[in-house]
Design a protein that fits this description.
160 residues, mainly alpha, Cytochrome Bc1 Complex, Chain D, domain 2, two-stranded parallel sheet, 2% strand
């Protein structure tokens, strides 16, 4: 038992200090969605995409409120973007333009009463990964007990 403890301590001593601080540095670079990470114009564009490509199969209530919080709070914006892009539209996943998927994500944030900001969501993966989905304003916070726990990507198959 003591040998395992000594080995564990020694192995940590061999890890460069930069590797230990990398996680805290990347966490510090993250912004919560409640800080205003999308614009009103982007959400409006997302509404247009929703109406033409999503509305016939998806009820807005399926990705708002508790359903949204349980599935997405504590995840990154990239996570929701990637699931929608890889699974929707159901009959032709990935068929929309990248910007259209990002705009739909902004629209979903607007449905959940996240505040708008002055700029659009970033279009590159790294930028989306630095945005953390926190509890929507006015949310109960009931899913905060799930924070930090990794959940599998939900299958996006909401129906009216």
């Amino acid at each position: 038992m003591i040998n395992r403890t000594v080995v564990a301590i020694l192995s940590l001593a061999l890890v460069p200090a930069s590797a230990l601080t990398q996680d805290s540095a990347s966490a510090a670079a993250e912004r919560p969605v409640t800080s205003g990470v999308y614009s009103a114009a982007q959400a409006e564009r997302g509404l247009g995409v929703y109406r033409t490509s999503c509305e016939s199969c998806h009820a807005k209530s399926e990705y708002t409120g508790d359903k949204f919080r349980v599935a997405w709070v504590s995840r990154t914006v990239y996570d929701i973007f990637d699931v929608i892009r890889s699974q929707m539209p159901e009959d032709n996943p990935g068929s929309l333009e990248r910007q259209e998927y990002i705009d739909v994500v902004a629209y979903i944030f607007s449905l959940n009463a996240y505040p708008t900001g002055t700029g659009d969501l970033p279009t590159e993966d790294d930028g989306l990964k630095k945005l953390r989905i926190d509890n929507p304003p006015g949310g109960t916070g009931s899913s905060s007990s799930h924070a930090g726990r990794r959940r599998p990507h939900p299958r996006v198959a909401f129906r009216k």
